[in-house]
């Protein structure tokens, strides 16, 4: 392998340098920005053979004003109609007035939301969903991320049948990535850098590619220099790889959730630079045109976290995919446990939060007064148990930056040869370890603060280091400050499975309520997202830091980025088992069969809360994915384009704004009588009711479709609200009778608040509606009731 890898390194493309400023005295150019333009594609004059010709023509430019012909970066024609271009701000203002331009929005940067987990979700070899779906062999999962490292065993096509004949995609060749890198497993690989290049360098892709200064390693091809994309792709659909581990941790057989599903990689994110909306939209457009069945997007947040759907390219691109039958899973974000931090809020998305699994990587710090404190670590070098080392906390004298071990913040003379205590926050956890190492420190203790509580994730640190919870960290810092000669040792364990309780809502997992449309509960559900083993790039060490020279075939990461591909793989299996199900039906099956208890039988807990404090649907949505049950959910809550248009009308969008999302003319019906349409009326698997002002009651409707084996089934309703919620819930009818001629049945849910609870300051109320039948199906929907004052 040495020679091929050396060849790949020779083909590495370094990140381009920033363009030089204009020479003194020269005329200063008007600032340029990249914009995405949504165009009414039906307005194209017949004289132009394609939309691309039209957009680049003088005729298109002159219709908007006096600007020169455009040079589009991307032309969109599948999930979105329009183009992106880097143009002067004044020209953008002119183009907004073009008669065919429906909307324009500025390009934005979005961050990435950065094996045992399939079994933890209820999958078993040769049984149930894996067996029925043939491990997903006929399904293609498109992954929008940082690309892929194709040589990994997790992307082997051994024993796979031919690529599905309907596949229309291909492999983009480029530095380090010949077209032959694709196979029957990795069926497609493309890259999109035009938006990235224009945003960071203000130049074309060709000019950026020739402007190298060696500042950072990257490949101008689908090859993954970051590792995130390889990890997410193989989490969703990695092939079986025996003898997998990360430096001995989590050893065993690694496999994705849908291990025979095919992977198509769309590189829309770039190492250290994030992901540009225009490139993300191009990735969606290509993936759907190529013929993927599922799209996995571990991206979100940024400045567009609560933008209206008609200004959110992820929401727009996903709508175009869903309207063509493609399931789209997205990560909820890592800004938890802050309330209202969840991102990717559109109701046609499956928004995935993160939970723990029953596996841990214990480590321990022993203070010289005999106190033993537990933590976690993935450090694979030598322990410090041979001798005690001095403890030092930079925050006592160095201020906030020093307490967090930020770059250039700690004095080498004070930390040399010591165990340095660093507070978590403001910089990557592993970067703090590199700061300590470069300053001469011997080891590190990473201490949580209030924001993370006792939530811990393992990291493959570059020096002996472990993470501890807030309480343990406070004890260590107190000892370091009060003892006359504070010393300690650090030891590292191996891998422990069967940990209880699990799952637990990860402290970092973003939380509801939905800050854009509170009538839609987000996240939809949680999936394994803590300490997940999957394949890794050959271009970076396990920390991803420039100074980490180690290389590993597999890495262990945490984040909702890791939870999202679990849902994508789950959707691939369900699509294979039930090819006629819509994306909404698949999401419904995952939601209504999710579990809300842990492996001890108690309610799901919140890692960021005090022990014994139960999490709520605002933390975990419908619950934790349980694939053993999702195969046969009994009932589903389906939805299609008409439902989503009605939803956007209900939340106040104008027809022209809806058309930006749907690509079709839209009209909203006039209100009938005193009935005020609400986003709560969307046929969603969860029920989120918002009582505005002095309103004390609200009725919403749902329609259930029987997908069970028994076409003649009878379901009965059961409602359970948390004690003391001050809310009553009535369901009419209380019995649903299905037959071969009546596969759908509707019902109404009326939520009524007591006078003591009906105020804007009241805490949300929680509960569940469960439809049960004698064959054993329990179709569960979370109920959340909130009070808001009208704007």
Rg value: 27 Å
Our count of helices gives: 21
Please summarize the sheet with the most strands: 7 strands, parallel
Shape: globular
Overall pLDDT confidence: 88
Strand order of the largest sheet: 8-12-7-15-16-17-28
Distance between the termini: 63 Å
Oligomer: single chain
Percent helix range: 10-25%
- Unreliable runs, pLDDT <50, ≥5 residues? 1-26, 209-215
Taken as a percent bin, the fraction of beta residues is: 25-35%
Class of secondary structure makeup? alpha/beta
Number of strands: 40
Which SSEs are present, and which pair or pack?
Layout: H1 2-10, E1 13-16, E2 32-39, H2 51-55, H3 58-62, E3 74-76, E4 82-88, H4 89-96, E5 101-106, E6 109-110, H5 117-120, H6 128-132, E7 140-145, E8 186-191, H7 194-201, H8 205-209, E9 212-218, H9 228-237, E10 241-246, E11 249-254, E12 262-267, E13 269-270, E14 274-276, H10 277-290, E15 294-297, H11 313-322, E16 327-331, E17 350-355, E18 359-360, E19 362-367, E20 372-376, E21 389-392, H12 395-403, H13 412-415, E22 419-423, H14 429-438, E23 443-447, E24 465-468, H15 470-482, E25 487-492, E26 496-497, E27 504-505, E28 525-528, E29 532-535, E30 554-557, H16 560-577, H17 583-592, E31 605-606, H18 617-620, H19 627-630, E32 635-636, H20 641-650, H21 655-662, E33 687-692, E34 697-706, E35 714-721, E36 727-732, E37 735-737, E38 744-753, E39 765-772, E40 778-788
Parallel strand pairs: 7-12, 7-15, 8-12, 15-16, 16-17, 17-28, 21-22, 22-23, 23-24, 27-31, 33-40
Antiparallel strand pairs: 1-9, 2-4, 2-5, 3-4, 6-14, 10-11, 13-14, 18-26, 19-20, 19-25, 21-25, 29-30, 32-34, 34-38, 35-37, 35-39, 36-38, 39-40
Helix pairs in contact: 9-16, 10-11, 16-17
């Amino acid at each position: 392998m040495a020679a091929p890898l050396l060849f790949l390194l020779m083909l590495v493309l370094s990140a381009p340098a920033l363009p030089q400023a204009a020479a003194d005295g020269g005329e200063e150019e008007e600032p340029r920005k990249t914009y995405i333009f949504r165009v009414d594609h039906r307005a194209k004059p017949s004289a132009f053979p394609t939309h691309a010709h039209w957009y680049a023509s003088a005729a298109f430019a002159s219709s908007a004003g006096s600007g020169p012909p455009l040079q589009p970066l991307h032309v969109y024609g599948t999930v979105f109609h329009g183009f992106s271009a880097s143009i002067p701000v004044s020209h953008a203002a002119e183009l907004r007035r073009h008669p065919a331009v429906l909307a324009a929005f500025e390009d934005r940067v979005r961050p990435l939301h950065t094996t045992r987990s399939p079994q933890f979700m209820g999958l078993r070899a040769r049984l149930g969903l894996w067996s029925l779906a043939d491990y997903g062999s006929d399904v293609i999962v498109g992954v929008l991320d940082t690309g892929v490292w194709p040589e990994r065993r997790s992307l082997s096509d051994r024993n796979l049948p031919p690529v599905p004949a309907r596949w229309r995609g291909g492999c983009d060749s480029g530095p380090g990535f010949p077209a032959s890198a694709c196979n029957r497993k990795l069926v497609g690989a493309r890259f999109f850098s035009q938006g990235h290049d224009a945003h960071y360098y203000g130049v074309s892709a060709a000019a950026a590619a020739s402007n190298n200064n060696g500042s950072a390693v990257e490949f101008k091809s689908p090859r993954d220099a970051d590792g995130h994309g390889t990890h997410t792709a193989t989490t969703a659909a990695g092939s079986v790889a025996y003898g997998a581990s990360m430096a001995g941790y989590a050893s065993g057989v690694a496999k994705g959730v849908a291990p025979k599903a095919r992977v198509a990689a769309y590189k829309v994110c770039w190492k250290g630079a994030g992901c540009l909306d225009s490139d993300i939209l191009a990735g969606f457009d290509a993936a759907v045109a190529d013929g993927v069945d599922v799209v996995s997007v571990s991206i979100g947040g940024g400045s567009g976290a609560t933008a209206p759907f008609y200004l959110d390219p992820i929401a727009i691109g996903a709508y175009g995919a869903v309207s063509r039958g493609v399931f789209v899973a997205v990560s909820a974000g890592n800004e938890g446990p802050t309330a209202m931090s969840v991102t990717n809020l559109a109701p046609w998305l499956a928004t995935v939060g993160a939970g723990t699994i029953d596996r841990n990587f214990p480590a321990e710090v022993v203070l010289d007064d005999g106190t033993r404190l537990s933590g976690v670590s993935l450090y694979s070098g030598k322990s410090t148990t041979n001798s005690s080392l001095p403890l030092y906390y930079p925050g006592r004298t160095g201020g906030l930056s020093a307490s967090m071990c930020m770059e250039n913040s700690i004095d080498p003379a004070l930390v040399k040869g010591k165990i340095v205590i660093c507070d978590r926050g403001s910089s990557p956890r592993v970067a703090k370890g590199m700061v300590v190492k470069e300053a001469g420190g011997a080891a590190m203790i990473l201490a949580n603060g209030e924001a993370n509580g006792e939530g811990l994730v393992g990291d493959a640190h570059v020096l002996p280091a472990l993470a501890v919870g807030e309480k343990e960290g406070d004890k260590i810092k107190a000892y370091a400050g009060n003892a006359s000669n504070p010393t300690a040792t650090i030891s590292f364990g191996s891998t422990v499975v069967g940990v209880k309780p699990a799952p637990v809502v990860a402290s970092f997992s973003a939380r509801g309520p939905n800050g854009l449309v509170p009538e839609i509960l987000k996240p939809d559900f949680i999936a394994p997202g803590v300490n997940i083993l999957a394949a890794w790039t050959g271009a970076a060490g396990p920390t991803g830091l420039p100074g980490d020279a180690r290389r590993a075939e597999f890495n262990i990461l945490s984040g909702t980025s890791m939870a999202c591909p679990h849902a994508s793989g789950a959707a691939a299996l369900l699509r294979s088992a039930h090819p006629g199900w819509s994306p909404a039906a698949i999401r419904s099956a995952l939601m209504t069969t999710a579990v809300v208890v842990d492996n001890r039988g108690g309610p799901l807990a919140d890692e960021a809360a005090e022990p014994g404090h139960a999490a709520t649907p605002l933390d975990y949505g419908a619950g934790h994915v349980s694939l053993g049950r999702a195969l046969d959910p009994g009932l589903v809550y389906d939805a299609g384009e008409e439902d989503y248009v009605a939803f956007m009308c209900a939340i106040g969008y104008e027809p022209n704004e809806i058309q930006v999302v749907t690509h079709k003319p839209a009209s909203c019906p006039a209100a009938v009588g005193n009935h005020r349409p609400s986003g709560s009326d969307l046929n969603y698997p969860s029920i989120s009711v918002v009582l505005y002002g002095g309103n004390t009651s609200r009725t919403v409707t749902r329609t259930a479709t029987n997908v069970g084996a028994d076409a003649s089934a009878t379901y009965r309703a059961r409602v359970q609200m948390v004690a003391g919620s001050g809310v009553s819930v009535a369901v009419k009818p209380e019995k649903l009778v299905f037959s071969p001629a009546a596969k759908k049945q509707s019902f109404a849910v009326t939520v009524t608040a007591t006078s003591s609870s009906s105020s804007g300051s009241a805490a949300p109320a929680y509960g569940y509606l469960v439809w049960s039948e004698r064959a054993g199906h329990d179709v569960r929907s979370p109920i959340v009731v909130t009070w808001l004052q009208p704007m």
